[in-house]
Amino acid sequence: MTFDDQEYLNRYPFIDKVLISSEEIQLRVRQLGNEISNDYKDSVPILVCILKGAYPFLADLTRCLSVDHEVDFMAVSSYDGGTQSTGVVKIEKDLKSNITNRDVILVEDIIDTGLTIDNLIDLLKTRNPRSIRVAAVVDKKIARKKDVPLHYIGFEIPNEFVIGYGLDYDEKYRNLPFIGIMKA
Ligand code: 5GP
Fold this sequence. Notes:
It is a single chain. Helix content is 25%, strand content 29%. By secondary structure, the protein is α/β, with parallel strands linked by helices. The protein has one domain (25-179): Rossmann fold. Helix 3 (55-62) links the parallel strand 2 and strand 3. The longest helix has 18 residues, at 22-39. It is globular and about 50 Å long. 32% of the residues are buried. Bound molecules: guanosine-5'-monophosphate (5GP). Guanosine-5'-monophosphate is lined by residues 53, 78, 85, 108-116, 161-163, 167-168.
């Protein structure tokens, strides 16, 4: 844990603990950046940031890439007012890019049930990309309802509600540099 992480813990007493420190995140993002750079040597992939939660990951990840790439943004909702993912994806903001014949990397914050990403992949496949892969900061594998192929995963985590590094609670705390668990 860094001094900054500790500062945030002091400021926000409702955070129970740091699950993944900012140092661990930065190290792992660098590793993922190297992996992606190796895998896309002969291509210019489009990294699609799924808003809002993936914005810190996209910003850090792209600065670790040594291959040319483009970025685009998409916002989808799958909760329909409730707390459970329905898996029915509604596009709130669509891509500007034409992804036909392009290599697409979907950049996500967390894969939980997997329903959102699975539906999003199905939807984007209708636009005939050359390939679609998924990069996510954390994987709550144990909560999975749909088996989705994930290519670049930062960390596997237990079935806990987490905040920080893009992940919100009531739209707040996305700015935390670490991933933490709130007090029950
Ligand atoms: P799912 O994979 O269940 O369809 O949904 C993934 C989405 O649910 C994520 O993009 C995120 O917005 C939200 N989500 C799932 N688990 C958590 C969590 O532990 N913390 C936060 N803040 N959001 C979560």
